[in-house]
Design a protein that fits this description.
By secondary structure, the protein is an alpha/beta fold. It has one domain (3-283): Rossmann fold (3-Layer(aba) Sandwich), CATH 3.40.50.300. It contains 13 helices and five strands. It has helices at 3-6, 11-15, 38-63, 83-89, 109-112, 118-121, 139-147, 152-171, 185-197, 208-213, 216-230, 245-261, 274-283; strands at residues 70-77, 99-103, 130-134, 174-182, 237-241. The protein has a five-stranded parallel sheet, sandwiched between helices. Helix 3 (38-63) packs parallel to helix 12, helix 7 (139-147) runs antiparallel to helix 8 (152-171) and helix 7 packs across helix 11 (216-230). The chain is globular and about 70 Å long. The relative contact order is 0.20.
């Protein structure tokens, strides 16, 4: 199945958070831009994997000639929304040598001694890499706001600090793809229940997930504030309906493909005489 046949509309503008966006109007079961069934989505995902791998190699190669561009994928979501599946099934299709993955949990004692962006700066991808943040600097406005564990004025400061930080990244050649995987509360209940029903998934269950679930509405409101304050023209947010895992993976793949295609990278020219090296090889 070709990408043209798989999609009936470009998903990028359909998923992008623009002025007037409301999270509570997004259907987590929807598949914006993709009219096909699950089997069609899986076929499209497999077809896009080779294209993504080929495109991801270009900035990696260009960096050897001094090109400073890179891509940073930021993944945010409620628990069980499928961040791990994105990393495995989308990012996992590319050469791991060109990927820098960072998962951010509760700040360590050392990290708490610094500004909230300190630990983020230390995990930024190098030139030519595809960086992946499994949770990110947004944890420090989402959880802190919902749990009231930071003063309101500090939360307000952080929104502005994030926008300035991302502007600096863009100025330095980083394309930022910020994705919120949006699942329904009912879907999360089913996924948490599945973890409890299967001994092989008990290790993935955290009783604290239920504590956070009890604050569902507060988190939805906190996400809305994040979108209102930090979705910019240079670093927009994308909200991907994620009740259907296959669609979420396919949509994120498409966003990465677009980001890499928009770079319009060419292979770096050889800094040696190709004909001369062919001659030497033949004589060796």
């Amino acid at each position: 199945m070709s990408r043209r046949k798989a999609w009936n509309a470009d998903p990028e503008p359909l998923l992008r958070v623009d002025e007037g966006f409301r999270l509570d109007r997004v259907d987590p079961d929807a598949t914006p831009g993709f009219p096909g069934r699950k089997i069609d989505g899986l076929e499209a995902l497999a077809a896009g994997a080779d294209r993504l791998a080929a495109l991801q190699e270009r900035p990696f190669a260009a960096s050897t000639a001094g090109d400073r561009r890179r891509v940073l994928l930021v993944l945010q979501a409620m628990d069980t929304a499928g961040k791990g599946g994105i990393v495995s099934h989308v990012v996992g299709a590319v050469d791991p040598n060109g990927v820098h993955y960072a998962g951010f949990g509760v700040p360590t004692a050392e990290e708490r001694e610094h500004d909230f962006l300190w630990r983020i700066e230390r995990q930024l991808p190098e030139a030519g890499q595809l960086g992946v943040f499994d949770r990110s600097h947004y944890e420090d406005v989402l959880i802190q706001k919902v749990r009231s564990s930071a003063p309101p004025e500090e939360i307000e400061r952080r929104y502005g600090a994030i926008v300035e930080f991302e502007d600096r990244l863009v100025d330095a050649g980083t394309t930022i793809v910020k994705v919120m995987l949006h699942i329904s509360k009912d879907e999360q209940r089913e996924r948490l229940g599945d973890r409890l029903d299967r001994p092989d998934k008990h290790w993935k269950f955290n009783p604290g997930d239920i504590d956070e679930r009890l604050l569902w509405d507060d988190y939805q409101a906190a996400y809305q504030t994040v979108f209102d304050r930090t979705s910019t023209e240079r670093a927009p947010w994308y909200v991907v309906p994620a009740n259907r895992k296959w669609y979420a993976r396919l949509a994120v793949q498409q966003l990465l493909l677009r980001a890499l295609e928009d770079m319009r990278l060419t292979w770096p020219a050889a800094d040696f005489d190709v004909a001369e090296q062919r001659r030497r090889l033949a004589e060796s």
